[in-house]
TrEMBL record:
Lineage top rank: taxon: Eukaryota
Transmembrane segments: 7-27, 47-67, 74-97, 109-127
Mode of membrane association: Multi-pass membrane protein
Name of this chain's protein: Ergosterol biosynthetic protein 28
Family of this protein: Belongs to the ERG28 family.
Length: 151
């Protein structure tokens, strides 16, 4: 199961990157003015920084929870959806609202893009592993009562 280990490591790595963004959002929101929303820095204020940090902390928690067990359908789906939301958000900011240059949006777009593709492509693989392990656990639990009855 090397791909499961790789996904888990990737999710922890992304969570650590997101923790950095949480710090920046809470304590140094001005960083977003010059390095992220470089085309319209006037729109970034302390409230935006804290809001961004809150959302990012939530998605960081999702990454860590999914890294712990990527085979739970609801957790996997919520984590995948958080990457899709990030991808859509940054794409819209670049193309529609023009608050970010492609250069400043490149890192979040790359992380969200890779994660969305990886998790989307692996949806059946990782969740089928869950079905297989649940089936083997169900089979073991069905045999347990018979063993207990024999004693």
């Amino acid at each position: 199961m090397p791909s499961v280990t790789a996904l888990r490591r990737w999710l922890v790595f992304v969570a650590l990157l997101r923790l950095l963004s949480v710090y920046l959002g809470v304590f140094q929101h001005s960083y977003f003015k010059s390095h992220l929303f470089d085309l319209q820095p006037v729109l970034v204020n302390e409230l935006y920084g804290r809001t961004f940090a809150t959302w990012t902390l939530t998605t960081c928690a999702l990454c860590l929870i999914c890294a712990k067990n990527p085979r739970v359908r609801a957790i996997y789906g919520a984590t995948l959806l958080s990457f899709v939301a990030a991808l859509v958000h940054f794409t819209i900011e670049v193309l529609v609202y023009k608050t970010m240059s492609l250069k400043s949006a490149a890192n979040p777009l790359i992380i969200a893009g890779i994660s969305t593709l990886w998790m989307g492509a692996g949806w059946n693989y990782y969740l089928n592993l869950a079905s297989e392990s649940e089936a083997s656990e169900d089979h073991e639990s069905e045999s347990m009562p018979t063993l207990a009855k024999q004693e």
